Amino acid sequence: MNPIVRIRDATVRFGRRMVLDGLDLEVGAGEFVAVLGPNGAGKTTLLEVMLGRRPLDAGTVEIDGAPPGRRATGIGYIPQHRRFATDLPLRGRDLVRLGVDGARPGLPLDRRSTRPRVDRAIALVGADEFADRPLGLCSGGEQQRLRIAQALVGDPHLLLCDEPLLSLDPAHQTAVTALIERQRRERDAAVVFVTHEINPVLPFVDRVCYLVDGRAAVGPPDVVLTGARLSELYGAPVDVLDVHGRIVVLGAEGATEPHAHHHHEGEHR
Amino acid sequence: MTGVTLYLAEPFAQRALLAGALVAITCGLVAPFVVIRGLSFAVHGTSELAFTGAAAGLVLADDPLLGALAGAVLVAVVIGALGVQERERDAAIGVILAFGLGLGVWILSGYRGFSSAATNILFGNIFGVGPRQLGVLVLIAVVVASVMAGLARPLLFASVDPDVARIRGVPERALGVVFLVVLALAVTAAAQVVGTLLVLSLAIAPAASARRWSAVPMVVIAVSVAFAFVAGVGGILAALAVGTVKPSVFVTSISFAIYLISRLRRER
Question: Could you say which of A91, A95, A137 has the minimum Cβ distance to residue B161?
Answer without folding.
Answer: A95
